[in-house]
Each structure stands twice: as structure tokens, then as C-alpha cells.
Design a protein that fits this description.
This protein has 301 residues and is α/β, with parallel strands linked by helices. The mean pLDDT is 91. The structure holds S-adenosylmethionine.
Amino acid sequence: MSAREPSLAYETHLGQMYLGRAEDVLRSQALEHCRGHVQLVFTSPPFPLNRKKKYGNRQGDEFVEWLASFAPLLRDIVSADGSIVVEMGNAWERRRPVMSTLALKALLTFLERGGLSLCQQFVCYNPARLPAPAQWVTIERIRVKDSYTHVWWMSPNDRPKADNRRVLKPYSAAMRQLLKSGKYDAGKRPSEHKINPRSFLTDNRGAIPPNVLTLTNTRATDPYQRYCRQRELRLHPARMPPGLPEFFIKFLTTEGDLVLDPFAGSNTTGAVAEQLGRRWIAIEADPTYVEGSRGWFVPLD
Ligand SMILES: C[S@@+](CC[C@H](N)C(=O)[O-])C[C@H]1O[C@@H](n2cnc3c(N)ncnc32)[C@H](O)[C@@H]1O
């Protein structure tokens, strides 16, 4: 991708989309005012692939170094109690039924280069994922479906702003029944843990979610897709499920906070941030994806 002057592509009530390379935009005057004020960087960078894709993925150690070069830039832009959340899929070695360790290497190098703490690792599990890599999974049947991505929550601070009460899950039917009856067998668990029935029977308005997020991206249509189809714009091939940024934006920010996605693609992050009343900045290097991302914000016709 050639170096271009960053330009403001469009603005909404709460956000700004920049067309340009993240490395240029992040260093530019345009973002001077938000240095140290971004509460959450949420992004899914181009993945390390074993073949080149349309959106210019780097390969091997070149990718590791390239991604790590963003760590100090992003650390500078987040607030003292801010978070950096990076999603990354798995990669496989070319023509071999073995996984590449690149994603892990890239995340570790990013963490170290930014002097960041790993607050928590998450897994984003997609039960609707097609069986892949096809050669090993469906043809030779020697591997199982690769169906999750890594999500690393990092911060310059061991105690970034966070509150799991903003991301509670509805209680299970069994738990609702338990709360209703008020009766709980408080004996020892098989793990030998003794449960305090009083704390167990308190209605906390929902269950604390685990660090495995089960999310699919199977919606056949949304304002973004409709807009792109009407204008014959290429749909982004690696869009994330809106539930993913939604979880972290709710968990790690409150209304009015600033969220940044430096590799925004179709701008799922900006769209969700806008819906949740957070300010946002998005950066994307491909003009077609920037153009399509307007679709989240135009009134439906
Ligand atoms: C995995 S995709 C992000 C998809 C996005 N999360 C979504 O839901 O649509 C990564 C994006 O990074 C963009 N990209 C690659 N290099 C870039 C750079 N140097 N600066 C900004 N964007 C870049 C690619 O064009 C691609 O759209």
C-alpha cells in the first residue's frame, strides 16, 4: 500500500473515519488532540496469512515486526486507564497440516514492545464457521474445524477501566429457578469448594460472562451490506461480528468515551460505538472499504 496523506473521509454525530495508512494517521496532527484520551483501541489487524490477500497482508516475521511497530503508537494514544484489544485469527503453514505460531508470536511481540500487561485472553468462538483448512479437515479428515480467534485485552495499566456488570448475560433457566425457589444445596462441590448459599442466591441481574465469546456473523443483511450491494461496492471479506466490539466497548468504556480502530475495514467498531453513544475514530487504508462503511450511517431508503 503506498503512503498517502491521511484524509478525513466522513464524520458522523460521534465519529470520524480517516482514509489512509494507520501508521501515517496515528502520527499525524489530525490525531494530536486525542493522544492520551482514547479509552479503548479495539481492532482486528490484517491477519498473518500464508498467501497474499487483497488487503495487503504481510507474511512471517515481517508481519510480526510491522504489527509490533504499532504498539508504542497505540500505547501513547490510550489514556492512563485505557485498554488495547486486538483480535487475531489462526494461521496455518503452507501446504502442511500444522498451525503457524505467527499469531501468538505477533501478539506477544506487540505486548512486549508496548510495555503492556495482558489483562485477559479471550477466545471468540464462531460455531457457524465453515470447516477449514479444507484439505486437512474435510478432505483428509486429519484435523478438526478451526473455529475461534484470539482476542487479547492489553493495557499499560494493570487495572484499566472495566466493569463486568455492563456485560452480564441472562441467567440460565436453572439459575432463574434457583433464585425463585431460594433453595440451594450448599454442600461441598466435587472440587472441594464450599459455596456460600447467600452469595449464590443473590440476584445480580445476570451471570458474569466467561472469556469465551460465542458469536456468529451470519446476518445476511444489515445497513452496511444493503448499502454496498445497492452501489456495487465490494463487501469486506473479513468483517467481524458486531457482538465482538459490542462486548468490549460495553465492558471497557462508558458513554462519551473515545474508541479507536486503526484497521477499521467496514468500520464495524465505529458503527457499534455510535449505537452505544461512544465517540469513535476509525482508520482504513482501502478507499473501497471506507466508501462502503458509510452504509452504517446513512438513513435507509
Ligand atoms: C481484518 S480487516 C478488519 C475488518 C474489520 N474489523 C471489519 O469488521 O470490517 C483489516 C483491515 O486493515 C486494513 N489495513 C491493512 N493495512 C492497513 C494500514 N497500514 N492502515 C490502515 N488499514 C490497513 C485492511 O484494508 C483491512 O480492511
